[in-house]
Amino acid sequence: MQKLKNYIHGEWIEGTGNGIPLYNAVTGEQVAISDTEGLNFEQALDYGRTIGYKNLSSMTFYDRGEMLKKVALYLLERKKKYYELSYKTGATHVDSWVDIEGGFGTFFTYSGLAKRMLPNTPFWVDGDTQKISANGTHLGTHILTPSEGVSVQINAYNFPVWGMLEKLSTSLLAGVPSIVKPSPFGSYLTNAVFQDMIESGILPEGAVQLVCGEPGNILDYVQDGDSVLFTGSATTGRKLKSLPSVAGNAVRFNMEADSLNCSILGLEAKPGTPEFDLFIKEVRNEMTTKAGQKCTAIRRIIVPENLIGDVQHALSKALDQTKIGNPLSRETRMGSLVGKQQYDEVLRKINLLKAETELIYDGQHELVDADYENGAFMSPKLFLNDKPFEKNISHDVEAFGPVSTLMPYKDAEEAAALAKRGKGSLVGSIVSYDDQFVAETSWKMASQHGRIFVLNRDNAKESTGHGSPLPTLMHGGPGRAGGGEEMGGLNGLHFFLQKTAIQGSPDILTAITKVYQQGAEKKYSDKHPFQKYFEEVEVGDSLETAGRTVTDADIVNFSNVSWDHFYAHTDATSLSGTIFDKTVAHGYFILSAAAGLFVSGKKGPVIANYGLENCSFFKPVYAGDTITVYLTAKEKINRGVKGRNIPSGVVKWLVEVVNQREEVVCVATILTLVAKQSPFIDLNVKNVQKILNGLTETTTAKWGKMSPQQMIEHLEHGVLVSLGEPEADKCYTPEEHLEKWQDSLYNHRKMPKDFPAPFLADDEKLLELRHKNLEAAKQAFLENLKRFVIYYKENPQAEHMNFVFGKLNKEMWELMHRKHFTHHFEQFGLI
């Protein structure tokens, strides 16, 4: 029988004990053995703190985001085998999709957040700069850096993939190495995904380790700077949190515990309304998805007292129609519990519930291609608590399976009170079309809930459901739910980061934060900042503009153009009692006039205005005042670009507008998209000719079979095809892949050296030469390149077929030729 290996201090290691046998939850057959006996946990933690921390923390946030994306893509290509293992845990295809591809989706989400919102530095400036001195020579701000330690992540059995990736998405992005400790049950699935993460070679050494089995005494070795993330029962979580090694050291502890989540049906949501039907469907789904083994599942069904019978009838009917059985069957809608041990535990909790409440639905389902004896199957159970303010068992005991309790309420006050009797929940939902009821109930129950999900006919089609935590929203809850906070977008990273206040002069803070601070030294040069590519722009690059004197005509004209006829700009007789002495220039005119002063009219790397932040007007500007602008590169933000967009980054520019007395009248931050330098040669004929001067008959290729003349004639043929001489007869790329191939023309990735051009599959065709020698071939190529430039100036709308990329327009042909020329010039060592 396969024994699952552990991955610690860079090696795959088998435990030395007998281990824990792991069984197929559907058939009862043994699948694997998990064993951690004999592992050196102290060494594993030390390895993470040293090698792992050094490698991860030295990466930038942007690069870690790119790393998450690469890992997710690598795993996505191998998803089929994960599904095959997931079925053995009792999960249906839908259950498995949530666990497996939902986990990958978390990596994708955090990668996107990093590339849009996080800096290309190993630290993260948090919040605005504070002026803490009268003259601005002493400033303060905060930076976030990876907490110097290792994160031990203890996960539950219900989501073997998502549970791991959800935690890793934030810890890896924050730059903190992790040791993953899944529940033994289902750990064979976690192990398979983890193996592929390591085999991908994408993660740096020491970034992640895996302990597949019992945790042993691993938490005895945590120390200052380490962190523990726990998902499981509140009782176990509290025990771990109180361990001397955790409580006695500066160990961060995050707990996400099971909770008695509720769903409330609105007072107006009677049978026949869309909300009643949505409620029944949602409760049914939450009772049966993952066989109720979800920390967010609905355990308490809170219903208007006059609708108890209607809900009981409708829900019982819906549960009757739910097919239970082998997850591999297409009929099956609910699988099994994860194992017999969990079955026995759920049964024990059911018997506790029976002591105070009535079992009103006990499904008698015939299994699909399975049997109760071998598998860990349990039919849905529905209880009724007729006096939920007196009988507390429903608010205290959670059966972690397809089990829920129905209970009545009279009004919004009672509904909220019952919701809060769970003493802290991950999620509570309200299904209602009554805005007032929803508003009153939600804010009253919010203090005891980590998330409130409201469902009605308006959002039903796009709703993600009561039980689905989302990467962009917090997952956690107060009280019984553990008081933890996971994900929540970028907030989820804060658990792993150390926040440090930085104080110093403007120059010092600029040097530390890589963000320009007002008052720091400006760098002036002859080259206009807007003529610099993203890589060339440096924080502090500045421009001082000429002055512009504002006139009465400017104010009148701007009023007419903008339709802004506010009295302060147009009516000098209405200014008594105001802060203005005479009609004043519009604030947005000042900003527009500033832009007119600092922009460069010549075409350059700046692509577009991307936004405006923190615009403030400090002093009025009147006709006769002269304004001057200081433009300074404040911050650079690397940016992931998809599709047919020019690779670029965002530059934030500090705009300081002063009057003739050097008084600051306006300060704003503008954002521009700035193109990155292309690694490909441009199509300037003189430059290409200069490059070709280095090509001779004896020049040898670094790869491929082409001779120098064959390469030049190959490029010339490509230019002629782009002129329609001849028109390519077909595109060899399948239609479903064509858009992806065309998009690739816009990125800065070079053509692969081993790319087999489909239309040159015949080597004989490649050898056919049209020109008498290399010099003649060069001349013909350059002449046709000149023709290409002129042709698309005269015919800017022309399109012609390419063998690989399909029909291309002027822009796309230019991009293709630039990549193609660079590829072959590098092939012969010319550039």
TrEMBL record:
The keyword Hydrolase applies. It comes from the Bacteria. Residues 460-484 are annotated as: Disordered. Pfam families: Aldedh, MaoC_dehydratas. InterPro entries: Ald_DH/histidinol_DH (IPR016161), Ald_DH_C (IPR016163), Ald_DH_N (IPR016162), Aldehyde_DH_dom (IPR015590), HotDog_dom_sf (IPR029069), MaoC-like_dom (IPR002539), PaaN-DH (IPR011966). The keyword Translocase does not apply. Coiled coil: none annotated. Residues 12-499 form the Aldehyde dehydrogenase domain. GO terms for molecular function: hydrolase activity; oxidoreductase activity, acting on the aldehyde or oxo group of donors, NAD or NADP as acceptor. This is Oxepin-CoA hydrolase / 3-oxo-5,6-dehydrosuberyl-CoA semialdehyde dehydrogenase. It comes from Chryseobacterium taichungense.
